[in-house]
Specification:
Order of helices and strands: HHHHHHHHHH
Organism: Cohnella terricola
Mean pLDDT: 82
Strand content: under 5%
Helix content: over 70%
GO molecular function, one term: DNA binding
Largest sheet: none
Number of helices: 10
Protein name: TetR/AcrR family transcriptional regulator
Keywords: DNA-binding
Number of strands: 0
InterPro entries: DNA-bd_HTH_TetR-type_CS, Homeodomain-like_sf, HTH-type_Tx_Regulator, HTH_TetR, Tet_transcr_reg_TetR-rel_C_sf, TetR_C_Firmicutes
Number of domains: 2
Shape: elongated
Length: 197
């Protein structure tokens, strides 16, 4: 795609996100987007059929940028999970205003849904390229980690990123790598001993 076209699309998307942050999605008009982007309304319509199409393409673009920032050469097998997570959190931190607007604005529930799909896809690709023991069901592991990571990212963004990227990833890795099953079994055995004594 021509650089001028890409630049115009990016300018329109940036204008759109800033208007969503200020007024909410429902109140935005195509004319307001054109005015903010400093282009005529016909230019906006030449790239997007309406504001719903703009929203869909905006979500797809920003999620793709997030995904690409985490994957060297787009190959999930080349990056360990901690490095992948750190790249994702750092990217979100650098672009906090955009992702915060898309994540927290009431008029953009589609962003959360698409982000969840992207997280699930990324985790599945990583698990598929990793050595997971035979006792662990891969599908259940993907779902568990996807919900946990996506929920944690959403909480972190909604709360205004109260911890650094490094702190978030360090804590997440401690939680993921912690031997919860063996600890839980030990606690369960102690409870059984108390019950039968």
């Amino acid at each position: 795609m021509d650089r001028r076209i890409l630049k115009t699309r990016r300018t329109i998307m940036e204008a759109f996100v800033s208007l969503v942050e200020e007024h909410g999605f429902e109140k935005i008009t195509m004319q307001a987007i054109a005015d903010r982007a400093d282009v005529n309304r016909g230019t906006v319509y030449s790239h997007f059929t309406d504001k719903y199409d703009l929203l869909d393409q905006c979500i797809e673009t920003y999620l793709q940028l997030l995904y690409e920032s985490c994957m060297p050469d787009g190959d999930p097998s080349k990056i360990p999970s901690k490095a992948f997570l750190l790249r994702a959190f750092e990217f979100l931190e650098r672009h906090a205003s955009v992702y915060s607007t898309l994540m927290t604005n009431k008029g953009v529930p589609a962003f959360r849904k698409q982000m969840m799909k992207m997280v699930e896809k990324s985790i599945k690709e990583h698990i598929d390229s990793s050595d997971v023991g035979p006792s662990i069901n891969r599908e259940i592991l993907v779902q568990f980690l996807s919900v946990a990571v996506a929920g944690l990212v959403e909480w972190w963004i909604v709360k205004g990123m109260p911890y650094t990227s490094t702190e978030m990833v360090d804590q997440l890795m401690i939680i993921i790598e912690h031997e919860w099953p063996s600890k839980w079994n030990l606690a369960q055995n102690k409870e059984e001993d108390v019950c039968y004594s």
